[in-house]
Specification:
heterodimer; A: Rossmann fold; B: alpha/beta; Rossmann fold; 11 helices; 10 strands; binds adenosine-5'-triphosphate; binds magnesium ion
Chain lengths: 267, 279
């Protein structure tokens, strides 16, 4: 097998935005500007960068959840755009996403147990009983309880909803997970628990992650490599050590300098 | 100094299970010109406390005990109309999940302008100018006023909420994880914007966050919540440097270090159960 499980070549994505004083004009903006990246098998690539720089757009385009205006994404060497529809549907199980906005991505009319089991059902994995057991086990691993299975998303706190989204993606035992700010709504203890879970699963199942985060401390703990985005372009990439210890771009240096909490020493 | 906001013995339960306390006897207060950070466990009742202050609890939940005083006045005594006048004008709120509180069919310019029209009677060019200033303050180009919420990035939506909440220069701001989707440079810009309001307008701020870096940078006081209760409260120096409660100590021990050297380790709840809680 190739060293890279996912490869993106020259990705381009434009959005049309209303502009002008009365909103009648339109303007094309480049959300992705010739983006290239490679995700190594069983490793974690962090994507960091300014708010609005195109990280979530990149995430959705990598997983074909949003059409590209140019470029190709190769999963295990195969161009996703060229897969027949039924083959792409099959591969979806292996290409999962943890969404940035958890509540908006959970069906409000489904119980949490159903939400987590749904993917297993769609991909016809296991018997009814096995699906239930898998969903329950994953919910427990993200720190939720059996009694939560029958509740609806609105009965949870922000961080609990985020964990429902994590369980839903991981229960499928996918090959690639694109995590869009997966731990930003979690307290630091649950955050550590989830990061360890991601690492454990990586070891158990050779999972590969694209890890979008604004928390540079978390990135340093979880990622092997990091790509820095700025205005739709990847402006710097390298191993964690290279980028943190000798950032080349001014923008990266600014990011590292702005990590909060540097004013006061914690006990 | 007199408190701006005083929360006393606040208790919240599901309407269907009035003995299951989601928030239990929570008391703390906020002074003008000061920032109080509320930190604590996911699911410990931080957002419910904030929503209850605003009178915005979902109908499935009830406040079974306690009061909320704003400038000495019990907010529960106000009529719906009087409460509406305070909300957005004197107390601004930034909700945890922007997409659920922004209206998908209205442009963001309209939504930022709405409180200015409703509370201050701003219209026409004056309104447009003020909206543009607010957008610029939160780092969104003015032409994006014509965009709809789903055309924005996660962090841009969060900043629209921030612009809406400060539009009328409230006396008090309740911000529920306002910067979770912001990169550190934009976060620093937003925090300094809020800090300026705090000093120039003497605004009091209740800031819910999981980020101890943010706490260390902006808090005057810290309230720690665990399983629906306040387990510790004090000045930022006291809580961060000399935490008393075992939960606070355990939580602080989980903060990731910037060098990536300290191993990740969640709280050992079995251990915590046997720890002595100081009187
Ligand atoms: N449907 C759309 N129409 C027009 N512009 C859009 C649309 N979706 C996103 N954009 C713009 O494209 C840019 C990239 O958005 P994206 O959501 O990918 O950013 P991001 O890096 O994920 O930001 P954040 O860190 O704030 O979540 C932003 O400026 C955003 O406003
Ligand atoms: N409508 C509801 N019905 C029943 N329980 C609810 C409801 N809303 C919230 N809860 C529960 O109340 C508790 C407190 O929720 P709250 O949203 O205040 O937590 P939080 O401290 O803000 O957590 P987070 O940091 O994860 O956002 C949670 O355990 C949650 O599951
Ligand atoms: Mg995003
Ligand atoms: Mg909350």
């Amino acid at each position: 097998m190739s060293e890279f499980i996912l490869k993106a070549r020259d990705l381009n994505k434009f959005y049309t935005q209303r502009s002008g004083r009365f909103g009648f004009g339109t303007k094309q903006v480049k959300a992705l500007d010739n983006v290239n990246l490679e995700l190594r098998h069983a490793s974690t690539l962090a994507v960091v960068g300014e708010s609005g720089s195109g990280k979530s757009t990149l995430a959705r385009c990598l997983l074909q959840l949003q059409p590209l205006d140019g470029g190709s994404v190769f999963f295990q060497g195969r161009d996703l755009a060229e897969l027949p529809a039924n083959e792409l549907r099959k591969q979806r199980r292996h290409l999962q996403m943890i969404f940035q906005d958890p509540f908006a991505s959970l069906n409000p009319r489904m119980k949490v147990g159903e939400i987590v089991e749904e993917g297993l059902l769609i991909h016809d994995l296991g018997t009814k009983n096995e699906r239930f057991e898998k969903a329950l086990k994953m919910l427990k691993r993200v720190g939720l309880a059996e009694s939560d299975l029958n509740k609806y998303p609105h009965e949870f706190s922000g961080g609990q909803r985020q964990r429902i989204g994590i369980a839903r993606a991981l229960v499928l035992e996918p090959k690639v997970v694109v995590c869009d700010e997966p731990v930003s709504a979690l307290d630091v203890s649950i955050q550590a628990q989830i990061l360890l879970l991601l690492k454990e699963l990586q070891q158990e199942m050779s999972l590969s992650y694209i890890f979008i985060s604004h928390d540079l401390r978390v990135v340093r703990h979880i990622a092997d490599e990091v790509a820095v985005m700025h205005q739709g372009k990847i402006v710097e990439k390298g191993s964690i050590q290279e980028v943190y210890e000798s950032p080349k771009q001014q923008y990266t240096q600014n990011l590292l300098k702005a990590i909060p909490g540097q004013k006061r020493q914690l006990a | 100094m007199a408190e701006l906001l005083k929360i006393e013995d606040l208790t919240i339960c599901p309407a269907s299970a009035p003995s299951r306390k989601l928030v239990s006897n929570v008391s703390f207060s906020i002074e003008p010109g000061k920032t109080t950070c509320v930190v604590g466990e996911s699911g410990s009742g931080k957002s419910l406390t904030a929503l209850s202050v605003m009178g915005l609890l979902s109908k499935q939940l009830v406040r079974t005990n306690g009061r909320v005083l704003f400038q000495g006045q019990d907010l529960a005594d106000l009529s719906t109309e009087e409460m509406r006048k305070i909300r957005g004008r004197q107390i601004g709120m930034i909700f945890q999940e922007p997409m659920t509180s922004l209206n998908p069919v209205l442009t963001i310019g309209f939504q930022i302008g709405e409180p200015l029209t409703v509370h201050l009677g701003l219209k026409g060019d004056a309104l447009k100018a003020k909206v543009n200033v607010l957008l610029e303050q939160v780092g969104i180009p003015a032409h994006r006023a014509n965009s709809y919420p789903d055309e924005l990035s996660g962090g841009q939506r969060q900043r629209v909420m921030i612009a809406m909440s400060i539009a009328c220069e409230p006396l008090m701001l309740i911000a529920d994880e306002p910067t979770t989707a912001l990169d550190v440079t934009v976060q620093a810009q937003i925090l300094s914007l809020l800090d300026n309001l705090k000093t120039s307008m003497n605004m009091g701020m209740l800031l819910i966050t999981h980020d101890f870096g943010v706490v260390a940078d902006v808090a005057d006081d810290v309230v720690v919540m665990f399983r629906g209760e306040v387990v510790e409260a004090g000045s930022v120096a006291q809580v961060l440097n000399k935490p008393k409660h075992p939960y606070t100590k355990a939580l602080l021990a989980c903060v990731p270090d910037a060098e990536g050297k300290k191993p990740l380790k969640p709280i050992d709840y079995a251990w915590l159960k046997n720890e002595q809680v100081p009187a």
